[in-house]
Design a protein that fits this description.
The chain is an all-beta fold and 498 residues long. The protein is 2% helix and 71% strand.
């Protein structure tokens, strides 16, 4: 995440507003300097969001959070800088959780707020190393606390990172870096949701190298490199990539890339055991569906290929067309195991086990069209359209009968966005965004279109007032399965800065 330097946020800023869904929010920021070499800022913000729409009227999932922090930048000798940053947050989010137990009534629906809290501290030292080289050294610590009705976790993460950039030759640039991350989490939960062991520390060692060659001056570039990681679940992983950038003319560019990426296993696949009561079971012999961990789970693998063309047919219009093909291997599956009887914990019950597997393969392909047009100095139009097709298949020995179709039908095949930004006279602004998303067949979500509109007014250089309407086409509509729907909402916002 890239944030502005403290010297770029000097002065005071206050913002506040509220409305329907965004029931209330406020924030402040103050920036100043100490002497000629130290710039700093402090900030605080808060929001309170209403619950989403539920057909049964059970508005349990309101959300509220406050956050505060600071950033300071020191200018050091030899054009080097030192940055210190810290943030702290606390909030709550409404949850509805179905908690399973091994005694009657076996399942209980609990509504309660999840407690969210945490903070982080970052220090970064950077600057030149000679005439054609620069470096960055960063140390980061993060603390998170999350307490839900069925589990709670406290996690501490330390991250150390170093990067150097230099030019070994006239038409060559190299960047390399290395890092170490240690993350320790302690989980407490109900008996039917268990991480074993409940406390685990993960170590991640990483390194990368990237080499950029200018094959033809200002025309043709070749960029290659790789990321290397060692984790405690699958050992060493390499993720190489290569890119080609060809500038045909000042108004035409072709780019192509090929890359390998992995998703390494986590505690969810290797440590989590989760039991759910099956309501069709008889009281005499209760039955539970149990997700059991798999210590042999392998990384999910991706080989990605992409080619794109960008053209500027007229001075005020940019158009980019891209196509891609992704090849997947060892994707996660849910493998059905043989049922068995269990006496501990009592009473006697039957268990239908599922285990994580790597039995899905396949590919996805698609295309994207993006356009940026400025019909006039006061008007800007942005538009995009994307097409996605996913095809998966199971191994012949797989006993997963649902994940394949579920994944294929959980991503929209067509998406389109049109954005219009108009700066009117007398300091008025009008922004409009239209979105279209096609159906999600496996989630039984119909296609929908909706709009967001913002009207802004700047009466002077220090004040900005705005009125925003979101999801205006319907009073509410679903965007994913689960019963939660997005509602139409409006809110106002006022901002002062000096």
């Amino acid at each position: 995440i890239i944030t502005k330097e403290a010297k770029d946020t000097q002065g005071t800023l206050i913002t506040m507003g509220g409305g329907g869904e965004e029931q209330g929010f406020a924030g402040f920021r103050y920036g100043a300097k100490i002497g000629e070499d130290v710039f700093y800022r402090v900030y605080g913000k808060f929001f309170n969001r209403a619950a989403a729409f539920h057909a049964d009227g059970d508005n349990f999932d309101a959300w509220r959070m406050g956050q505060t922090g600071f950033r300071a930048d020191w200018s050091l000798p030899n054009d080097r800088t030192l940055t210190m940053r810290a943030d702290w947050y606390r909030g709550s989010s409404g949850q509805k959780t179905n908690i399973t137990s091994y005694t009657a009534p076996y399942s209980q629906l609990v509504e309660d707020d999840a407690e969210l809290a945490g903070g982080d501290v970052l220090g970064r030292w950077e600057g030149p190393l000679g005439a054609s080289s620069d470096f960055q050294l960063q140390l980061y610590y993060d603390r998170t606390h999350r307490a839900e009705p069925s589990f709670r976790e406290n996690r501490d993460t330390f991250d150390l990172y170093f990067q150097q950039h230099f030019r070994p030759a006239h038409r060559q640039e190299m960047t390399w870096g290395t890092g170490y991350r240690v993350s320790s989490g302690d989980v407490q939960s109900v008996p039917t949701l268990q991480f074993t062991p409940n406390r685990r520390t993960d170590n991640l060692f990483s390194g990368f190298v990237q080499d950029e060659f200018e094959l033809i001056s200002d025309r043709l570039y070749l960029i290659g490199g790789s990321n290397f990681e060692h984790n405690g679940y699958s050992g060493w992983e390499a993720q190489p990539s290569g890119r080609l950038l060809w500038t045909l003319s000042p108004w035409q560019t072709i780019r192509a890339s090929v890359a390998r990426a992995v998703r390494t296993p986590s505690r969810v696949e290797e440590d989590l055991g989760l039991s759910t009561f099956l309501t069709m079971a008889t009281p005499e012999l209760p039955a539970f569906l149990r997700l059991v961990p798999n210590e042999q789970f392998q990384p999910e693998k991706l080989h990605a290929y992409e080619i794109g063309y960008r053209v500027r047919p007229i001075s005020r219009l940019f158009v980019t067309v891209s196509t891609f093909f992704n090849d997947y291997d060892d994707l996660v599956s849910n493998e059905v195991k043989n049922p068995f009887l269990e006496t501990d914990p009592a009473p006697l019950h039957i268990v239908l086990p599922l285990s994580w597997g790597n039995s899905l393969q396949g590919h996805s392909h698609g295309a994207e069209l993006v356009a940026d047009w400025r019909p006039a100095n006061w008007w800007r139009l942005n538009g995009s359209y994307s097409y996605l097709r996913i095809n998966l298949r199971r191994d012949s020995n797989s006993k997963d009968f649902s994940t394949e179709r579920s994944v294929e039908g959980s991503s929209p095949r067509h998406q389109a966005i049109l954005q219009s930004s108009i700066n009117l006279r007398a300091a008025w602004e009008l922004d409009w965004t239209l979105r279209y998303v096609s159906e999600l067949p496996s989630q039984k979500i119909a296609a929908y279109a909706t709009s967001d509109v913002r009207i802004g007014w700047r009466p002077n250089g220090h004040v900005e007032l705005s009125l925003v309407g979101q999801n205006l086409h319907d009073s509410h509509h679903p965007e994913f399965a689960g019963g939660v729907e997005v509602q139409r909402s409006t809110y106002g916002n006022a901002l002062w800065h000096w």
